């Protein structure tokens, strides 16, 4: 099992952003409970903005209580814990290092770009993020550390012909990269909360609107889930033209993938509704 993803069969779906937010230091809190916004926290750890965002996404830096505005904050204790990790900051930087696109990822893996693309399209490599380039094409991001680990663990896949299963996927023009990324993204978000309504909101955010309405017919519950929905992942484009290209990446596509998220959401809602019965309000407590 990888550190930041749980593999789920069939379909090699990986079940697993960081909300960059500015928040001032809480001056009235005692030193051991000082709260920092993301910009200050990244500076305290000596990380670039993208490195810090990736560290939060992967759970390497844990967010603390949110500000009343909803902005993510980080405790002094958490920053001290990260700094006390062996090899800091080099080890942390190595774990969040990413490479963008097939050429750069192939170089790390020690193969040609076409083999890298085939391995990723067939679900052997899971992207950790994406960006949209100026040609409005999706550029997938990979963790460099995972590529190096894969090269050692699956050395046989770096040479020779593709196995039969991969050849079938290639013939069908299958591309598992979006699905694998969604699974990882959802799984990482679920790891960051234990609140049943927030967990349900994470699962709901991946479903197409018509599917969500079928699972959650109550409009009031859909309002709660929409209010708790996670923000787009770090790196999601802001320009409308690029955002339109990236938007389909956020929604489940294949029938079996949609079924998986519908079933998971239904289960999560059972727990969330049970919580609401014991409290005077609908939603997280």
UniProtKB/TrEMBL annotation:
Domain of life: Bacteria
Family matches, as Pfam families: DUF6397
Xref: InterPro entries: DUF6397 (IPR045652)
Protein name: DNA-binding protein
Taxonomic classification: Bacteria, Bacillati, Actinomycetota, Actinomycetes, Kitasatosporales
